[in-house]
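re: that chain from earlier
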Amino acid sequence: MPVSRLSLTLFLFLATLLLAWFVHGTGVVKNDLERNIYIPDQLTMTLQVKAAYNAEQMFFRYRWPTQQPSIYHDMLVYRDGQWQRIGKSPVGRQPQGIYEDRLTMLVDDGSVPEFDKYGGYATVGDNMRFFTNEASKEAVQAHPYLGQKKGKDEVRKFLPQTRTDPADWASVVSESELAALRDAGYFLDFWHWRAHRSNPLNQSDDQFVAEYRYGDAGQGVYTTNWDADRNQPKWMFDPDKTGMYALNWSDLAERKLGFEDVYYLHEGSAIAFDPNRAWQEGDTLPRRLLRPGSGSHADIRVSGQGRWEDGYWDVTLHRALDTGHPLDDKAFAHKGKYWVGFAVHRNASGGRWHYVSLPVSVGLERDAKLRAVRFDGAQPQWQQDWFTITLFYPGQVGWPLLNSEAHAGAEHIAKGVPVHARHTPGQLAHYGVEMEFNEAIIQHWLWSLFAGVLLIIGFGAALMHLLRTRPGR
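^ sequence. v structure.
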């Protein structure tokens, strides 16, 4: 009998030890593309910025590292007698590298009270595109304002006061209230540089964020090269100007085409698509047609050329201090102070898989984190030092979560405490990852706790049994 009890006790002890071994320290952070989860290899990166202005123009210069430039975007490849799309906005990295690098900058003049303290977090609502719980296409299309009036089918950036309940994307306030908010300046100017869809024309997309992320008034710098009714492209390369009808897929897959090569399609190099041509396996056409922008949509230009060299992108954007479009853009003024938030997409990553910054103050010849230098002439000399800021992967953290009971710091947000006063970018990156796996982490912790308790019980039982069976007792 003693041997049997000892064997049972040892078995329980070893079993609980083995259970503890398996549940403690094993990883729960795993990519799950079906649930829109992909964790970047690096959670932070650096961005360098300079700012300058003259009597008419505002300039921002950006420099950031990336392994190689991603300048291809959204292609149509001829395979098995059909045109197949490669490069749709991916979950994480695009496997074939067909997704452009991008840089964005949100700008506010103090009219959005949430922005100077919490930056881009204030633009992220619940059920956003590419979140694990993203709203369905059908639900957005059925919405009387976003879907039926605005023609949207997904939830994108929006500001809290454009909803009666910021935790409910569908609770859009009345159209009259939206108009009043925008008239009062409650929107964010959104500078959006794209390595494929704007940079070849030395332009940047110009957008704004209010109840949705919209393009400014006027014609955008690109359109879609696809005829849905005929299931074929609309345009192809003009051979008289480019020497070809289409790109070769292998040149893109092997990244043979660079800045000086033809890798994009624009109005000046395109002709109507010929469906009767003898298209060959691997013929490739860009799914985007570049064109000159117009109106407020074309306010932002590239100064010089945006180029990647020796591991870094170097891009300079400029725009009129006052564009004359007060419902789309934030005007800059001498001695003014503003707040900006930066984001970078790199390494062929799209969607929410970017790196973002905390809000940064910008002063035009005025003390701020980023001081804009005034100069005379047409172009700045850029003699000032770089301002370096750490960007971080934000995960699925947005305004509703930060103001909920699930966030231990919600009371500080209610008091208006800025995020940088309590968190570093590195901490925010790890918090973003933790929240993507919050349920799994809690479950894992409970299993570890259970195994630990059993281990203690098993160890105690074994010890007590040995004490009872010692000789002489």
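Residues 31 and 39 are 6 Å apart (CA to CA).
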